[in-house]
Structure formats: structure tokens, C-alpha cells
Amino acid sequence: MERYSTFGAVIALAVASLIGLVWSAWFLIPLAAFAGLTAVGVYDVTQRGHAILRNYPVIGHMRFIFEGIRPEIRQYLIESDQDEEPFSRDERSLIYQRAKGVEDKRPFGTRARVYDAGYQWITHSIVPKHIADHDFRVTIGGPDCLLPYNASLYNISAMSFGALSGNAILAMNKGAKMGGFAHDTGEGGISRYHREGGGDLIYQIGSGYFGCRTPEGRFDPEKFGEQAADPQVKLIELKLSQGAKPGHGGMLPASKISPEIAEARGVPMGQDCISPASHPEFSTPRELLDFIARLRELSGGKPVGFKLCIGHRREFMCIVKAMLETGITPDFMVIDGKEGGTGAAPLEFANHIGMPLVEGLTFAHNTLRGAGLRDRIRIGASGKVVTAFDLAKVLVLGADWANSARGFMFSVGCIQAQACHTNECPVGVATQDKLRQRAIDVPDKAERVFRFHQNTLKALAEMTGAAGLSHPGDFLPHHLMMREKDREMVTGAEVYPYLPEGFLIDGQGDDFGYSMRWQRASADSFDAVPEPA
Fold first, then answer.
1. Where are the domains of the chain?
2. What is the pTM of this model?
């Protein structure tokens, strides 16, 4: 309750000043000041527009004072090279503006460092096109799918109830319902807040099988069938790993498990909730694909795929080889970059385990092309995809659609306080504290989620038209340019080319080291095939 201490002190000082009038009329001055601040505090805790003020009455206004002078502070930080926030102020400001539906244009040209090595841009056309409809869609569902899903090009990435508050989940899902896009449940199961919102769901199943588990923590087909039969559930996503902490697993301590979390996950109260590092239901590539086929059958033919952050490239090729040998293919896969992840993770894992999105997406896309399977499988991309340029870039590199976690977190009020693991999120987004999450006004934040999605896709439509294209799916590597160093630039086609269809099968056209790993990959095991003596 210390967050209300300033408000309490103001009230106490107002009362003291009122009593002081017995001795001196001079107490009218502090009485007026503290009575005014008390009125401000009362307004703060009752208004619904700012979560910070609802949780931090009176003192919360300091944040907005500092925001008012932020341009000068930001310039100092740029000049002194001290801006080391995990997410740039410009990007965060852009999300807030689009979510609020306010003007997001900036005067005086680019703020990007256009002369630095690594600067990237999309090429534009002298004859741009006007794209009136920005409701871009992609159909997800392979030849074995009975119920394909017509998905938005931009959706909410996996964030579990338990990691996020009920109000944050509800606001996101209501926004997804308004905008006709999908909301990934994360591995924490389908909560009452997902169901209440009514938006399309991607039901993610992690190694703990939350919502479809036996008391021993193994997969329960009957419970899964009940969950998957819900009309809200449009896709089934098997989580193999995530960018924040691939290969790590996790634990939700018993002290943090509320009755609502226990209900969504299907776990008992009073016990630690374990997510193993690997799945107990399969251990080989063939078993993984058999499990995917089983999920598709149990779900009544809904699209089933998997999500992973690329680790050992050969292991991914093992899965692709198993696809060729079994004839079983997922309907989609989501490639998560190691730069993604909104929750807490060990520092070494967050910084140095897992492949970044650009490299992981390029590798997965070209491996599927090399195996002749790319047309059967849709690819989603996640990992700091928050602007229209980010969206265009992953489409350039071979993705069919993108998911975003932090973009939608910001749209419901996240200020990147990095207190997600403490249960003391100042704006009520990443906490189970009922009083803190009260700060989120669900109808208001749902509108912001909707507007952020809509305005980002409008910006993507403008970028697509500026490039002379009719649809974002038309972006190809040559539309992306990169500065290597002074006076030298390259196209995306030179750095991230699409390799020839079927090259892994016929052994032709591989100058990028794919064939060596392909030869050592096995459909029967994730272990490497020994090199010949």
C-alpha cells in the first residue's frame, strides 16, 4: 500500500492545516494547497484513463511531468550514447500514439541513424499504389486440415494468464474480438478472461499441458478435446520453445497460484506448478509429428502447428525430414526470435541462448523450400515485431504473418517498468494483485488494443503501396536494403536470398551450408547421424 502513501500524506497534511486554523489564519495557505492535492488524488483513484494515476494517486503525475520534457532528455541520451532501454522510446511512443488514435507523424525528418552500418529501409516506387482495404488476411490450414482459419496478418503473441493479469487478458481479447484478429493464450491455458472476451484464440499447449493434463502432468486427450471444441479456438499451437528462455522450462511457485490460475491450468492449489524443459509425450521427430496429427484429429480437424526458437539447426531439419518420410505436416509453425519474450528470464538465457528472428526465420523458410514443403506450411514470426516496418521486414524474409507480445502489452498500458516477475507491476498489466490490476479500465484498453492493430495495418498498407505493391504478401527480399558500411549497401536478396525449391532433395544450388546438416539429420532421432569415417 506504499503506493498510496503520498496521497495519504497529502490528506493528513490537509487535516493538520485545517486544525492549525485554530491558532493562525496563515494555515489557510497550506490548507488550500493540500486540499487541492487531495482533490487531485480523489480524481486520480476514480478516473479510468491512466492506470498509473489509479495506482499512484498524486505522485503519479510526476511521470507526465517528466514525459513533457522527454525530448530534451532523449536528445541528451542519444548524444551521450546512454540510451540502453530494451525498447526504444520512439517505438514505445509510436505504439501509445497508435493505440490512443492520436497523430503519429513527426516533423524534421528521420530520427534513425541513416549513416550507421546496419541501417535498413524498404525501397519505394515512383508509381505508388493506393490500398484502400488494410484488413490483410492469410489462410492457415494445410491439406489435412478440415477447418482452416482466415487469420489477420498481425495477431497477439503468447502471454499466459498468470503472467498477465485478468484485466490485461480481458482487454486484449476484447480488442481482438473488435478487430477480428487472434489472441494466443500462452501456455497457461484458456482462462475465464479469454472466454469472456469472445475473441479468436490460438490455444497454446506447452510442456505442462495446462488445461489438458492428467493429475500427473501428462497429456489428457479427453480434456484437450473439450478445450479444442470451443468455437473460440481457431488454432492449436504446440510450444517447443520460446525466445525468452529456450530450453529452460519454468515454475510458478505455489504462493502465486490463485484459484483462477488453478482453474485455467488444471493444477492444484498449494503446489508449485512445473513446466518441464521438454515434452514428455514425444522424444523423436516422428513422435512429434504423430502427436501433431493426433492433436489435429482430436480437435476435429482444426489447424495445428508448433512454435519454437531455432537452436540446433540440424534438429529442425530432423523434423522436416520426418515430414517427408511420414507425410505428416503441421499446418503452420511460428518462429520465435530470441529477442522476443515479455516475461522474466535468466540473464544468460535472455541474452545468449537461441537464434535471433532474422536468422531463424530465414533458415526455417529456406529449409522448407529446400524440402519442397513451403507451400504446405504457413510461417508466423514473433520477436519485437511492433511497427509496420517490422511487419514488412518479416514478410520480406519469408513469413506469412506476424505476432506481437510487447506491442499489445504497451497498448493496454505497460510502461516497461520491468517489474513483471515481482507481482508489483505499477500499471496492473503483469500482476495478480487485484488492487493493482483494478487500474486497467477494460473497455478503454480494449479500444486501444483495437486501434493499435488497425493503425499498424494501415501503416503497413501505406508502406506496401509506396513500394508499388498491391498486398504485403508481395514483399520479396529485393525490397529490403541494408547499409553495410560507408558508401556500401546491399539488398536483402544478397544477404537473405530465397534458396531454390527442392534443393535439399536434388542436392542442387546450396552455397549456404544447408546440405551438410541435412545429411546428418535423421527423422528417427534428434541426435546427429555420425559422420562417415
1. 2-68, 137-485
2. 0.86
How would you write 371-431 as a 3-class SS string? CCCHHHCEEEEECCCCCHHHHHHHHHCCCCEEEECHHHHHHCCCCCCCCHHHCCCCCCCCC
Res. 97: pLDDT tops 90: no
Q: How far apart are CA 521 and CA 281, in angstroms?
A: 21
Q: Looking at the DSSP assignment, which residues form a beta bridge with residue 488? A: 485
Q: Identify the burial level of 276 via C-beta atoms within 10 angstroms of its C-beta, where 0-12 means exposed, 13-18 middle and 19 or more buried.
A: middle
3-class secondary-structure state, position 184? strand
One-letter amino acid of 79: E
> Among 40, 38, 70, which Cα is nearest to 53's?
40
Selection from 107, 128, 154, 108 nearest residue 463 by Cα: 128
- For the chain, give the number of residues: 533
In angstroms, the CA 194 to CA 188 distance is 11
Closest CA to 174 of 199, 144, 200: 199
Other CB atoms within a 10 A radius of the CB of residue 3 amount to: 16
Question: Between the CA of residue 63 and those of 18, 88, 415, what are the distances in Å?
Answer: 30, 17, 10
Per-residue pLDDT tens over the stretch 414-433: 888 887 877 888 889 988 88
- The rounded Cα 176 to chain-centroid distance in angstroms is 14
137-485: what fold?
Answer: TIM Barrel (3.20.20)
Cell numbers at residue 452, please? Answer: 493499435
Tell me the C-alpha distance between 95 and 411, whole Å: 7
The number of beta carbons lying within 10 Å of the beta carbon of residue 238 is 24
3-state class (DSSP) for residue 88? coil
SS3 205: strand
Tally of CB atoms within 10 A around 180: 16
Q: Per residue in 368-386, pLDDT tens?
A: 999 999 999 999 999 999 9
Give 317's pLDDT tier (boundaries 50, 70, 90).
very high
- 461-480 b/e (C-beta count within 10 Å ≥ 16 → b): bebbbebebeebbebbbebb
Q: Which of 199, 403, 204 is nearest to 304 (CA)?
A: 204
The span from the CA of 246 to the CA of 353, in Å, is 7
Contact present, 12 and 34 (Cβ < 8 Å): no
